[in-house]
Amino acid sequence: MDAESVRDACSAGASQGATGISGSVPSGRSYAFDGLAAAVLDERGAVVRWTGTAEDLTGFTAEEVCGRPVRELVADLPDDLRGTTEMPESGRARLWHRCGNTVDVTFRTTRVDGSAEFLVLAAPTHHVADREQGAALLRALSAQNGITIALHDTDLATVQTNATPDTAHGRPVRPGTRLCDVLCAEDSENLDALLRQVLETGVPVVRRNLQVSWRHDPSRHHVLSLSAFRLEDARGRPTGVAALYIDSADQQRARRHLDLAREVAEQVGGSLDVVRTAQDLADVLVPTFGDLAAVDLAHSVFDGEEPSKQLGGGDMGNAALAPPTAVWPAGIKHGDPVPPLPDHPLLRRFRHGETVIFGLDDFIAMVGDPQLVDYLVPQYAHSVMVAPLHARGLTLGAISAWRCGPSAPFTEDEADLMTQIASRGALAIDNARRYTREHRAAVALQQLLLPPATTDTPAAETAGTYLPAGCGAEISGDWYDAIALPSLRLALVAGDVVGHGMPATATMGRLRAAIQTLADLELEPDELLTRIADLVQRLAAEAPLGDHDIVGATCLYAVYDPVTRRCAMASAGHPPPVLVRPDGTTEIVAISPGPPLAIGGLPYETTMIDLKPGSVLALYTDGLVEQHDRDIDQGLRRLTDALAASCRPDRALDATGRALLADLADQTPRDDATLLLARTRAVPAENTAHWEIPADPATVSKAREWTTRQLTTWGLEDLHFTTELIVSELVTNAIRYGRAPVELRLIRHNVLVCEVTDSSSTQPRLRRAHTTDEGGRGLVLVAQLAERWGCRHGQNRKTIWSEQPIERPR
Q1: CA-CA-CA-CA torsion for 333, 334, 335, 340, nearest 10 degrees?
Q2: What is the pTM of this model?
Q3: Which among 541, 620, 529 has a CA at the least distance from the CA of 569?
Q4: How far apart are CA 806 and CA 588, in angstroms?
Q5: Are 497 and 503 contacting, i.e. CB atoms less than 8 angstroms apart?
Q6: How far does the chain reach from its first CA to its final CA, in angstroms?
Q7: Fewer Cβ in 10 A, N or C end of the chain?
Q8: How far apart, in whole angstroms, are the C-alpha atoms of residue 486 and residue 801?
Q9: What is the CA radius of gyration of the chain?
Q10: Is the peptide bond prior to 741 cis by the omega test (within 30 degrees of 0)?
Q11: Are 570 and 525 in contact (CB under 8 A)?
């Protein structure tokens, strides 16, 4: 048998596995036959020829095996083959290796024509299995719709492919074809460069999106996803490039649907006006989904009321058309009533909540009336999709999209998308409808809960301004407060409740009432915020299931003392206040903000600052400084500059606040904005008196003498008797039950304040004294003589105070 006959037989044995892929292996490329051993046997089964690959496989040379029966090389010869010279056509066997091991091979025998000899081809079984699996994989891939496989040689000529260009004849691409023979010039150049890069670098390309056109039909574009990798032989030498092209048209369509759904989520629902929301819904469909779109709503929805349970055509009116410049057949415009339609199976499906598709002929047949057809059907329209606007158990109206001219008709998979869009749009429209009634109630409640716009106290004059979101369209829970405290002090509050509408307004009212109550207890700012945080957590726990995370607030609480001219403040996640000094310079007060009020378990920190008389302290909510076109740092700088320019001593605070809010807030703010300005005052030093009292009961009489002398200096002789009794009782209690040091302070303003401070934290209380008791009547006496009295606690100290009115001469 000559060498050419052997090579032909090898080619015949290696050709299996290529089913489904057209083409042939180029001449001169023998890498497909690496590791394939061959031998020739005579009619007795003795080896007559032995190739080098057979020697590589077994380790035996031709001199060692030629002339010997091949059965001597088989390690597990079956019993039925012993003693016979007959050769099986194919199978598996274990051959001895010269080193003593065995080699598992798969073999095939072929009789040489015109001779009694046999050609035996053998290869390691695992190589054969790998090639069979690879061939099976190749056949499976080539049979998949939408997957094109192309094998290119090192010159990028097509070796094998299952490609069938979209032609009238659908002929397969022939072997040897180049990319420029199939694709447009520009597309073939780009793809050729990409495959050349893979061949040269070995770096694969995975899921690269391409848009290509066939050379014979350049007007049609095909969207493909390319994955390509370099082919190598057993020695790692590049032999070509394998390319997989996956038709990604469905993926592109799915991506367009996702993009449209995202646009609906982003663009629809931003307004709380019913008509505006309907227009946004119609606009988002054109031209991405349809050429024309219309939204029709029940008449009651326009007024914010619920529609009737059985909604018909005569109950609806047009709310939106897109594009707005489109010319409809009979000049349909906003507000026009929708005529009733006759009963029809497709229309009944719509009334049961389904999205329906009509071809033009079906729609005309359903309507029946030619005049009504002319009124409803746009020019050149061929397909319409109608979906009900169904939300919260109510059918609010319908949305319809038309396709005209060359646009493709609607498909059933697009009906699912339309259902999702209609569901989102219906919720947005229903939110706008429900908002109307809620807004009326929230506005009334908000006006009742907010404090007076201006206050005038010995500590400061204040002016507060509030701007709701959407220029009045959205009421929220932002608030401010100025609370007069004992000893001429003033508490300043700014807060921001999470959310909008009635729930936020109600929460604001509860928090404001709680802060006023706790302020009367004269707690330190950090302690007050801790208790308010506990209250907010209780409110969150009481909220309906699923709403716990939307109950929260931020708050800034500050207490200014006009005697010491010091201000103590603490923040619960609230922006820092801005200080405008009397000389016009400004400063953002450096405070350490604690967590928002919805988060408990973390401490708050009190910050102390000194304020000169005539300083302006500005408290605000984040709606004033945090806006869509700038971050909070830019907003703070803008606010600081505006305060420096506007807070002049000759300008009223309320006018300043209104002007600042108008200048700094957006035209249609997305969040409420609140601004509280407080211009501080100070009690002159000559209107206060202070003494330190030794812890000796004998000094009580001296305290009365000091008090009498000071009142005489102030011209308050009419208060001698009552003030002496108050001072006597308070100092006595401080010495007897408190701890040194003990201090007495008198403050004169529109009231006379008497304060006694000691280092005990014991809370004084009124108690009923029995007839035989020698004590227990002191605080009862103080409560009778003073207009009001109380106790406040500081760090390692407490102060008991009383106030008596001062009658001014007429």
Answers
A1: 60
A2: 0.52
A3: 529
A4: 39
A5: no
A6: 142
A7: C
A8: 8
A9: 46
A10: yes
A11: yes
**CB 495 within 8 Å of CB 708:** no
The CA dihedral of 324, 326, 330, 335, to the nearest 10 degrees, is: -10
Q: Which residues pair with 145 in a beta bridge?
A: none
Least confident of 34-48, 227-241, 321-335: 321-335
Contacts of 602 (CB under 8 A, 6+ apart): 594, 595
> Cα–Cα distance between 566 and 273 in angstroms, integer?
48
What's the CA gap between 30 and 11, in Å, rounded? 10
**Cβ proximity of 624 and 665 under 8 Å:** yes
* Lookup: tokens for 545: 């299931």
Residue type, 436: T
HSE (side-chain half, CA atoms, 13 Å) at 734: 30
Angle at the Cα of 794 (from 791 to 799), degrees rounded to 5? 35
Give the CA count within 13 Å in the CB-facing half-sphere of 38: 19
Grouping H, G, I as helix, E, B as strand and the rest as coil, residue 346 is: helix
User: Which residues fall within 8 angstroms of residue 624, CB to CB, at 6 or more apart?
Assistant: 635, 639, 661, 664, 665, 673, 674, 675
Q: Where are the beta strands (DSSP E) in 681-807?
A: 688-693, 742-748, 751-758, 788-794, 797-805
Q: Are 98 and 59 in contact (CB under 8 A)?
A: yes
Structure confidence at residue 751 (pLDDT): 93
CA-closest candidate to residue 480, choices 472, 497, 492: 492
Is the peptide bond between 88 and the residue preceding it cis, with omega within 30 degrees of 0? no
Q: Where are the alpha helices (DSSP H) in 579-687?
A: 632-646, 653-664
Is there a cis peptide before residue 595, judged by omega within 30 degrees of 0? no
What are 86-97's pLDDT values in tens digits? Answer: 678 788 888 888
Q: Give per-residue pLDDT as tens, 473-516.
A: 556 788 999 999 999 999 999 999 887 777 788 888 889 999 99
> Is 209 in contact with 224 (CB distance < 8 Å)?
yes
707-764 pLDDT tens trace:
999 999 999 999 999 999 999 999 988 888 888 889 999 999 989 999 999 988 776 7
The structure tokens listed for 21 are 């892929």
CA proximity to 451, closest of 488, 478, 472: 478
